[in-house]
Design brief:
By secondary structure, the chain is an alpha/beta fold. It has four helices and three strands, in the order E-H-E-H-H-E-H. Helix 1 runs parallel beside helix 3 (65-71). Helix 1 links the parallel strand 1 (8-9) and strand 2 (31-35).
Length: 96
């Protein structure tokens, strides 16, 4: 099996990143690698005061299960692999 090709991608809302993921798959990507914003990496919800100004800047903002559902909606998860660089809040993200 050839190597999985994944572009590290994520920005704005879960909907924005979902659209980007779909575009990348149409361009031949064989996997997805999710980039999360700083607030998510530090485990803050988007509306937390310490997250002010960081929403979706350097990755996708994820604060809830609903965000994760939108992020991966209508993607062929049974045919591709995914990767998430999430660090500290990994257990919370994986529980979603």
């Amino acid at each position: 099996k050839p190597w999985t090709m994944r572009m590290f991608a994520g920005y704005g809302t879960a909907e924005d990143t979902n659209k980007r993921f779909k575009y990348l798959l149409k361009q031949g990507q064989t996997g997805l690698s999710t980039a999360f914003d700083m607030a998510t990496l530090y485990g803050y919800d988007t509306d937390h005061p310490l997250a002010a100004g960081e929403f979706g800047k350097c990755g996708v903002a994820v604060s809830s299960l609903a965000d994760m559902e939108v992020l991966f909606a209508d993607l062929p998860l049974d045919k591709i692999t995914t990767s998430m660089t999430i660090n500290s809040p990994a257990s919370v993200i994986w529980a979603m």
